[in-house]
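Annotated sample (chain length 183).
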Amino acid sequence: MLYTGRGDTGRTSFFGESKRSSKASLLAEALGSCDELGSYLGLCKVKSQGYHIKLQNLWLDEIIRTVQGDLFIIQASLAGAEPAITEDKIRFIEELIHQVEREIPPIRNFIIAGGSELSAMLDVARTLTRQAERRVVAVKESDDQRVQPHNLTYLNRLSSLLYALARYTNFSLGIKEENPTYD
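Output written by the structure step:
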């Protein structure tokens, strides 16, 4: 069944808890932001299949699929389940970022999002990552013990990766980056 009706009053429960919590709680907001990010990354993944972008012998859609799986691990751990983000997952993202940095020009100024549709979408995913990160920080600052040590590091690196991928996409397509003029 696709619905239970148990959440009709605006309350939900988390893994291993019998107590019902508000769907507007800090934890529900963090979980919802991670879910929103994962869903939007699904759109990026589908869109990326039309491009021939490869890093570390992985197509861009494969990289995004890996990230989506990692977001499920973060959500499960926030909800109280066992899975945890590992240092290996963080290192994988860092290696991708370093590879992009070796191939594109260094950043000299702020860059206006856009250029190509996929680059713009990856920039939106970056902002959704930052939103999810802020929500997870709020859960952590509420002294909730659910936030495992590597969750915040992963989200922080993920936003950097998505920024790098947005830039790399435009670079791969020969699209020049545009800087703000402040006039």
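Annotation: Helices lie at 26-48, 60-78, 87-103, 117-141, 149-172.
Annotation: The chain has one domain: 22-172.
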